[in-house]
Each structure stands twice: as C-alpha cells, then as structure tokens.
Amino acid sequence: MTILITNGCNLNQPENKNEAEDFQYLLEQFADIKIMQYQVPGFEELSLQQKELIYYLSEAANCGRDIIFDQFYKHNLTVRKTNEAIINSYSGDKTTADFKNFLVYAKRVWFSNGIHHHYSTDKFYPEIPEDYLAELILHSDTSLFPLKTGESLDTFIARVSLIIFDKNIDNKRIVLDDAKDIVAESATNFYEGVSQKEVEDFNSKFIQPDKNKALSIGLNSQLLKENGKVVEKVYKIDGLYGKAIEKIVFCLEKAHPLAETDIQKQSIELLIKYYKTGDLKTWDDYNVAWVQDLDSRVDFVNGFIENYGDPLGMKATWESVVNFKDIEATKRAEIISSNAQWFEDNAPINNRFKKKKVKGVSAKVITVAQLGGDCYPTTPIGINLPNADWIRRDHGSKSVSIENITFAYDKAAQGNGFLEEFSYSQDEIELAKKYGSLASNLHTDLHECLGHGSGKLLPGISSDALKNYSSALEEARADLFALYYLGDKKSIELGLFDSFDVCKAEYNSYLRNGLMTQLTRIQPGKDIEQAHMRNRQLIAKWCYEKGQENKIVELIKKDNKTFVVINDYTKLRELFGELLAEIQRIKSEGDFEAGKALVEKYAVKVDTDLHNEVLTRFKKLNIAPYGGFVNPVFSPVYKEGKLINVNVNYNEAFINQMLRYSKEYSYL
Ligand code: ZN
Fold first, then answer.
1. How remote is the CA of residue 440 from the centroid of ligand 1, in Å?
2. Gap from CA of 3 to ligand 1 centroid (Å)
3. What is the pLDDT of residue 19?
4. How many A from CA of 351 to the centre of ligand 1?
C-alpha cells in the first residue's frame, strides 16, 4: 500500500536538514502540474559497495519504464513515441503557440505515463487543432514514428489522431461506477476485449493450493480474448513485457553480488526467479524473504505491486523505489513500531477484530535514491509492503516514510500563500508552521507502521470482500488509526512529541483538506474517485455530520469565504475512534453493503457550491495542484577499468530526463 501526499501544496516549514541553501526544488509548472527535484542527502557517506548497489538498482528501476505506459493503456507507447519523434526532429517553427501547446501535451503524457490524467484517470487532450498534429508529423523525420508494418504515413496519422483527439474512445482509464461493466469500460490494458463477468468467471476457476496462504491471483498478467476464449498473458521474461523484464533481470544480476545481507541476496535471487517464471508462489517466497531483511541499509521495491490501477483491484502496476535508511529519523518510527502491541490492544475497535499478536511491524524512514514505473514522476510519501494478507499476518510488513520527498514538497511550497488562504485564524497558521511537518510525518508513520497492519479478518472472510470499495476503506482505516493515536497521551509518553498542539495541527490540516482543499484536484462537475481522496472526504464529512449537533466541527463563512473550524478536538478524536471501529468491523466481517453505503454517502459526491468556491480561491494563488519529481542522475566513475565511485548530480531538466530515458531504456 502506498500513501500519497495529502495535498500537492504541502504547507509546512521543516527543520533544516543541511541541504544546500541554493538547491532548486521547484523546476517548472505546466497544466495542473509542478515538477520538482529531490536531493539524496547522505549518499556521499555510503560505502562504495552501497553506492554501486544503488546504481544497479536504479538502472533496474529505469528499465521497466515502458511497462507502466503499456499497462495503463495499449496505445500509450505509440503516443509517447510519436510525441518524442516530433520533439526530436520537427523542422518547422518551434516558437509558435501551437507548438508550445503541443509541448505541454507531450509533458503531460510523460508525467502521467500515458494519455490519461495520473490522478483522475480521465483522458486529456492537446490544445492544438487536429490538423496541426498532422503537420508536425509530416515535417518531422518520418522514419522515427512507430508505424505498423506496411502502414502508410497517412494511415498512421489518422490512427494516432483518433487515439489522441477522439473524446469517445477510451476516455477513462479506471471506471469505478458500480452500475457499469467496470472492466469493459475502463481503458486500462489489464484487460482487452473481456467483460467483468468473464474476468470474474475466469478468476473464480482458480483453485488456491493453500487457502491459508492465498496467492495473489491475476496479479501479474493481462486477460484478453483469443478465438473467443479468455486467455491469460503472464508478465515474465519469455512472456508479456519480456524484453523489458530481461533488462531488469540483467541489472538485478549485477546488483546481486553487492547485496548487504544473506537474506537480501536470497530475496534478489527469488525476485529474478519470479521474473523468469512469473510464478506467484515464487513472488510470495520473495516477499517473505524481503520482509525479513531488516538489516540492509540499502533496500528496494521492484515488481508488479499495487493494484490501484485495476478497477477490480487485483492486477498490479509495475513500480520501483530504490532507497536507503535514514538512521537518525528512523529512531522515531522505531519507537512507534516497537509499541505496536500496545496500540493494537488499546485500539477503539471490537476485541474480536484485534490481533492477539501484532507481528514484525518494522518501520523506518528512508531516503529515496531513484523512482521508477508507477512511482515516477508522482511518488508516494510512504509505503507499506508486502500487500498479501497472509504474509502480513505470518511475517509482518515493512513500512517506510520517505522524508527526502516530503522535505522537497515542503521546500517547493514555501510561501505560496495556500496555508494563509484556507486557514481560519492566525493561530491555525502558526500551529501549521510550527508543527505541521512533524505532525504529518508522525501521521505517515502511524498510518504505515501500525494502521495498515492492525486488526484482522474474521475466519473465512475473503480479503477481496469489499471489492471496488476496499482501497478507500483500507486507507480510511489506516488514517483513522493514525488520527486517533495522535491524540493519545501515549504518544507524549513515548516522546513522539511534547504538546498536543502537534495533534491539533494535524487535525486542522486533515479536516481542512478532506472537507475543502483537496477539492482543488477535482474538475468542476466530477465526482471523487481516487481512493486516498475518497478516504479523506469520507472521514472528514462523516465527522462533520456526526459532530454537527454539538458543533464539534463547523464550516464558517467569513468575508464570503468558507473555513473549517474545529471547536472540540477531544470530541473529534472520539469520532475518529467511532468511525475506526465501524470500518474495522466492515473489513473484518467483509460487510460489502455497509462499506459501499459509507463510501457512496460520504466519499464520492462533491458539494458543488463549496467546490466552485475552493476552485476560485485556489486559482488566484496560481499553484499547480499536482506534483512530481525528476530523478537524480547517478554516474559510475571508473579508473583503469575499476569502479572507484558513483557520482550523484541534479542537473537534468524534466524534458531532458524524459527524452534520455526514452532513448536509453525503451524496450517495448
Ligand atoms: Zn495507506
């Protein structure tokens, strides 16, 4: 599971982390996007072996880039290659407004790993006339375009124009509307030519060899129809995406002898074996080994992991995160995870749903060195893996917060006016400035280290019981766990912070975001669909409604502007606890109907007037609601054929990085 930044414009002023003063965090802004860069503090102090390990793992992270484009939509690579051919070879005037608009489109495609918005998953369109695209293609080096065998340039132009401009074709990547065939209507490439019913029938034939250790069926494959029959194409070295997987395996083989521990070595071997066979049992074996490797400083994620991109929540997108432990900051997370049992025992949920023994919730703060696949350029700020319920139950999970990323977010957002615009009082602003950074880091720690790992399913309840509502409810469960415990005196006893002002800062920012400011990311007239956003509105709206009678939370108008005001933090915390109990019950009992009712009532619909107001106020600030990062560049230094160092530098612009990646790592 991943945790995303609560808002593209984070507001806090973090403590100085010895970063270069003049480092440029914000690189550029276009459409609704800002491009930032992050630093990798501490990299220079790593051993040569660790640096080399990071280098090869980073190469492996880049080698899978084409996979995510293709998984998201079958024509994404065609569009990307077309855009790049134009950028690299167009001989006409590149200073016109049309060309600039075309460039914005190309950047958006890179940013979203395809032609659908990375967050809303709606198809987006270039602001150019259709015939201008044809002109661009005709005045470029036509040998660079991805023509099919025997295809004429005219046919190619017609084909690409349809993909890019037609508003009726594949206009949404993930359709979640329960009244529709969410498989057939979604543009995602996990399925091709099959209906939801056919997919469910296909999956239901799968027999789990060991019910107690359920394999993640369908995780790494595409389902499509051949000669009227549903067939499964597995992602593996001699299967689907084989050419890219082969390169990933090559890099992993280079990384293998550099592993820091025996168990890390073993986990890399298993990952390679999995990429060669596509076998889900091997995938679980790999995860069991990976979750036990707690001693390596350098760690990484590389594989088909998160299922947010599948309307049915089963198939996984490819991603990679290469990182190393931030030893100082990890101490805070360790305090939390070493008290996991206390938190579980005292959670405000029914005892039947509590784990008697919370296992191995390891927690650390990491410094990211490279992002790939579904984690690039938009990236989570926390990760909790593996996802398989039985592995979490029997072996625990690893939970990380990514602080060089949150740090970069904060730095890039300083002084943008967002906090001032949406805060009710000067007090609220001061609290956020003073404690916001610590509060949100602690929230992430609690969410990842404890929230997702807490509670249990009753015997016989399937982890898929909540279907398309499971992601939003699971994120709500983890967030509520964090919110509830931020207000517990145990947090002070443990020395996590010394004043409940930290808790207040987080409650302010959470409700402000859930009730109002996250609406900056929603187009007028649209519903909320993204799981993390649904979860935040669910919690905020539910508490607002339940607390209305006693004015626990209010929406107050001042100078024609709406503000969220919390009048009673203690009572609000009780509401968090109450909702946590209910959502835990829903998960533990697999109560689909109750889960659906909660999400549909509180998480999906948007108050139109408030939405419009928020958009108007936000627009004046001229801040892009979404953010993503370019990666640092690692270059090995050789002397007489021997590696003597790995340099890191930060001088690559977004467009250059994207063009270079496409040149150096394009295998599909
Ligand atoms: Zn989460």
1. 14
2. 5
3. 47
4. 23
For 281-327, write each residue's pLDDT tens digit. 999 999 999 999 999 999 999 999 999 999 999 999 999 999 999 99
Q: Ligand 1 center to residue 18 CA distance, Å?
A: 29
What is the token pair recorded at 468? 């398309």
Q: How far is the CA of 114 from the centre of ligand 1 (A)?
A: 24
Residue at 212 is within a domain = no
- Band of pLDDT at residue 3, cut at 50, 70 and 90: low
Is 355 found in the same domain as 386?
A: yes
Q: Are residues 245 and 374 in the same domain?
A: yes
Residues at Cβ < 5 Å from ligand 1 ion: 1, 3, 475, 478
State the distance from the centre of ligand 1 to the C-alpha of 616, rounded, in angstroms. 30
Q: What is the pLDDT at residue 185?
A: 96
Q: Residues 155, 57: one domain? A: no
Distance (Å) from CA 306 to ligand 1 centroid: 11
User: What digits encode the pLDDT tens for the residues 262-272?
Assistant: 999 999 999 99
Name the DSSP class of 304: E
Distance from the CA of 308 to the center of ligand 1, in angstroms? 11
Give the span between the Cα atoms of 433 and 438, in whole angstroms.
Answer: 10
Q: What percent of the chain has pLDDT over 90?
A: 85
Question: In angstroms, what is the span from residue 155 Cα to ligand 1's centroid?
Answer: 45
Q: Residue 18: what pLDDT?
A: 43
pLDDT at 17: 41
Spatial contact of 606 and 522, defined as CB atoms under 8 Å apart: yes
In a domain, 103, yes or no: yes
pTM, rounded to two decimals: 0.81
Residues 124 and 247 in one domain: no
> Is the model's pLDDT at 651 over the cut of 50?
yes
Specify if 498 maps to a domain. Answer: yes
Distance, in Å, from the CA atom of 254 to the CA atom of 220, rounded to the nearest integer, reads 24
Which of 317, 300, 318, 295 is CA-nearest to residue 308? Answer: 317
Ligand 1 centre distance from Cα of residue 353 (Å): 19
Which residues in 479-518 are b (16+ Cβ under 10 Å) and which e?
bbbbbbbbbbeebeeeebbeebebbbbbbbbbbbbbbbbb
- Give the model's confidence band at 441: pLDDT under 50 very low, under 70 low, under 90 confident, else very high: confident
Report how many domains make up the chain: 2
Range of the domain at 511: 26-66+240-629
Q: Which residues contact 575 (CB under 8 A, 6 or more apart)?
A: 542, 543, 546, 547, 552
